[in-house]
Amino acid sequence: MRKKKIIKKLTQKNMILEKELGLKRNEYGINNYILKDRRISRKRLKHFYKQYKKYGFTEYDTWSLDHAFAEWMYSRLYMYLEYGGNIVNLDFHKFKYKGKEYTQRQIILKIMDACECYIRNQFCGNVVNGDTYKAMQEACELWALVFPAMWW
Q: Which of the listed residues 38, 107, 143, 151 has the most CB atoms within 10 Å of its CB?
């Protein structure tokens, strides 16, 4: 398989990250690696392609699993709000967290805010600070809380 064809198969297109967060196509996922570094060997691309066929993603996602998780979570929750929110009453379930009560919708939005902050900080060249890590840790706690209700 030709190098350009492999690159085309491996690159991701995520309109949510592009439209909502203003990222360019070469700024997220494996695109950040293979579209920025055109010196990448054909052998390396073939290796990535084999991984992609086997797992549905490449080892690149595990190099920065924290960031890959934030991208994945943000995109999936965005879609869940868009589609599932029309079917499921996201204000029905209530969850207690740190002495306050939140609806499923409120928790989803809090998780998305934390993911957005994390993604923006990393791709804007900023150092991810303690506050951003705390927000992502809280997002993971909230995810564990709301997890059983996340279906439609």
A: 107
